[in-house]
Design brief:
By secondary structure, the chain is α/β, with parallel strands linked by helices. It has a single domain, classed as Flavodoxin domain (Rossmann fold). It has 4 helices and 7 strands. The chain has helices spanning 13-25, 51-58, 90-97, 120-124, and strands at residues 3-7, 28-31, 33-34, 64-65, 76-82, 105-111, 133-138. The chain has a 5-stranded parallel sheet with strand order 2-1-5-6-7, covered by helices on one side. The longest helix has 13 residues, at 13-25. The radius of gyration is 14 Å and the shape is globular.
Length: 147
């Protein structure tokens, strides 16, 4: 079974967890990077006109730089990101739209300072249509992720 750890990290925490998870599983890893990288000001959620707020409220796609080669070869995908507004950042939705998820097992690991997983999987479902299963939870470390 071929496994991929794909992740978006705004401030480095999700990246650390993703790298440790990929090493533990012997999985391939792919960093989801927006074509226009975020600045500190862009992700300042307390500023109502920050980029992350505009994207979330406007339900805007966030173009992704690069793509996963041979995505069809992966059976299990670990998808990591910080929780933004009780869900995945828009860059995750855009990333997911670019692939066929049919038959894939999806495990979401989300990092957050205070939010729980809430309806994140439910909100993500339209973007990973066809996945054989999808579940997830908020984690602080790789030790909380079931392989």
């Amino acid at each position: 079974m071929k496994t991929l750890v794909a992740y978006f990290s705004a401030q480095g925490h999700t990246k650390k967890v993703a790298e440790e998870l990929a090493a533990r599983l012997g999985a391939d890893i792919f960093e989801i990077v927006p074509e226009e990288p975020y600045t500190e000001a862009d992700i300042k959620w307390t500023n109502p006109v920050s980029r992350c707020n505009k994207e979330k409220m406007g339900k805007k796609d966030v173009p992704v730089s690069g793509n996963v080669e041979n995505f069809a070869d992966y059976e299990k995908i670990y998808l990591g990101f910080p929780i933004w507004y009780w869900g995945a950042p828009n860059v995750i939705n855009t990333f997911c739209k670019g692939y066929d998820w049919t038959g894939k097992e999806v495990k979401v690991f989300a990092t957050s300072g205070g939010s729980d997983i809430g309806k994140t999987i439910e909100k993500l479902s339209p973007y990973i249509e066809g996945a054989s299963s999808a579940d997830g939870k908020v984690v602080k470390s790789v030790d909380e992720i079931e392989a």
